[in-house]
Specification:
about 200 residues; Rossmann fold; 2 domains; alpha/beta; 9 helices; about 55% helix; Arc Repressor Mutant, subunit A
């Protein structure tokens, strides 16, 4: 995204040359009005533009809960602007004129980061859906199993029979699609870790 048509066209050509689909905008407001989440992406924006600046755009993205890596470009290259950009959430910052390879490297790194974020979010959502299958009693058993407690210890803590613990434990294993206690521990650890280019 850049208000300079030549810069936009150059960036679109560069990204197209390596097979990246690119949509160009001449302003931050134009981007916000038409953006639709179509999968892995990153945003490349100039810092200084008429109307909404690149830094203001970052704040707007946060306010609208639009998550994507942002790379900011500037011809001014002052350290204070770079610091503000990074604090506002930019994944990187590049000075004009930049080398094509440097820009491609930044964009590829940003796309990989967005892919990883999306995968992590999807896994967390799936984990939450699976946990929602458990009854409150099964969830209490699950929480104790993953801390290494035996059926007898769980029965004593919950004031239920060992047989009842075994029944709940078997249901937990089935609902969470776990083949072993180790699988349950891995599931518990992952669920507690919830965590295209636009020019």
């Amino acid at each position: 995204m850049d208000d300079d048509a030549a810069v936009r066209e150059s960036l679109v050509w560069l990204l197209g040359s390596v097979g990246l689909r690119t949509v160009a905008f001449d302003s931050a407001s134009a981007f916000l009005e038409t953006y639709e989440d179509e999968g892995v992406c990153c945003l490349v924006s100039d810092v200084r533009m008429p109307g909404m600046s690149g830094l203001e755009l970052q704040k707007a993205l946060i306010a609208q809960q639009l998550e994507m890596p942002v790379i900011l470009m500037t011809a001014f290259g002052d350290v204070s602007t770079a610091v503000k950009a990074m604090k506002a959430g930019a994944v990187d910052f590049i000075e004009k004129p930049y080398s094509n390879q440097d820009m491609l490297d930044l964009i590829n790194a940003a796309l990989l980061a967005d892919a990883a974020r999306r995968q992590s979010t999807a896994a967390a959502q799936e984990g939450a859906q699976m946990l929602a299958r458990l009854t409150p009693q099964e969830h209490r058993v699950f929480e104790r199993v993953v801390t290494g407690k035996s059926n007898r210890e769980i029965a004593s803590e919950m004031d239920i029979s060992v047989k009842t613990v075994e029944v709940h434990r078997a249901r937990v294993m089935r609902k969470l699609e776990a083949g072993s206690v180790a699988d349950l521990v891995r599931f518990h650890l992952s669920s507690s870790d919830e965590p295209s280019a636009n020019g």
